């Protein structure tokens, strides 16, 4: 990370001055590409999303607590007594008063007709007087007791739900989300490998064209010197004009080749800038393009196929996907099993009915156990299980197919490495012969024993041999990288 910050800071400082060039190495190009690649930024966010999804899945083991509250305004209130009954109860005080007055009148008449009963009648009147007041109040009390006044209703509930047995669904979902997090990580690694591979391809393409550009410049300089020497020989009668024209044609071809290589180099640098996430018009110079020659250490490809099976991120992704689909079978099977949960709650209402109808907040707690058992669904659950098994088989077949393709890819990459080494060894031998041929031709031309056309052919052969050597060196670099990627041992920090 410190190296990356240094590289980014250096580049930012270099870009402050438009004319100042940016010096890049393969390491800095890789770091810049990994930092700025949008696909890698997206895959990193996928890792974060999968991580939090797994955390959310773990909470399914824990009890859930929820609070609910509500208010309802009704147009009409609930009436428990009909209108006739209410009318009778409303008339009860008057009826009781009428009966009481009638009894009092009769008691007075009886006392006057039978004076000996007057004390008894007086005693009964005194005793029954409070009872009359009670009887008069019965009707209004009953009316008040049955008056609900529920037009304004308030309710609230605090509920706790604890899963006890869900058929293994919670455990399966926990594993799926954990595998999904690991899958997002392996996919991120796969993306990094692809980015590094594209960086290396673009980097070595620039290096190859830069060396060929230098080669084209050197070849053009040789032709210009040869043209100057031949023109002097023509002036002195030691060479023909045809020799001069042949060299002029080769010179024009060399100038055209130089232009093409220069254009290709500019486009390749723009591609590298785009991959690294820097401005396309930046003046970049690579560390390896400024060296006199490319250093390679060709080694015969040696590998262990099990290394690829153990390290390839694509196989890890498919293995995780296979595990995910196996857990999906368990989730589908859980739908066929009973589910048990513990539930506890506290309910509060206004009005309440715990002591008649009262416009007060009162509540009570409740605890219980819920059991859900699927009995008959026309085979829907079984069909889902079979579907999940079929999808798991598809993932298993994909994994087997990927193993076969990776084995083929590793063997092909190893063959390409060995072929690149053979081409490089042949190019080195051809280069030695071409240099000796060119040296002999130049000496013979200066001594006047070798014609200009032969010398020109020697220059052309030298150019072709050196160009093939550069191509062979670049092939060794790239084929080694391809083999490392095929084996899953690509150095991310190179």
Write the SSE topology.
Layout (H helix, E strand, L loop, with lengths): L1 H13 L7 E3 L1 H11 L1 H21 L5 E10 L9 H31 L4 H28 L6 E14 L3 H67 L5 H36 L7 E3 L18 H7 L1 H22 L4 E12 L11 E11 L7 H68 L4 H36 L7
Parallel strand pairs: 1-4
Antiparallel strand pairs: 2-3, 3-5, 5-6
Helix pairs in contact: 2-6, 3-6, 4-5, 6-7, 6-9, 6-11, 9-10, 10-11
Name the descriptors.
two-stranded parallel ribbon, four-stranded antiparallel β-sheet, alpha+beta, 11 helices, 11% strand
Characterization of this structure:
- By secondary structure, the protein is α+β, with helices and mostly antiparallel strands.
- It has two domains: 23-62 and 166-337 and 374-487, Outer membrane efflux proteins (OEP); 82-147.
- Strands 2-3-5-6 form a four-stranded antiparallel beta sheet, with no helix packed on it. Strands 1-4 form a two-stranded parallel ribbon.
- Helices cover 69% and strands 11% of the residues.
- It contains eleven helices and six strands.
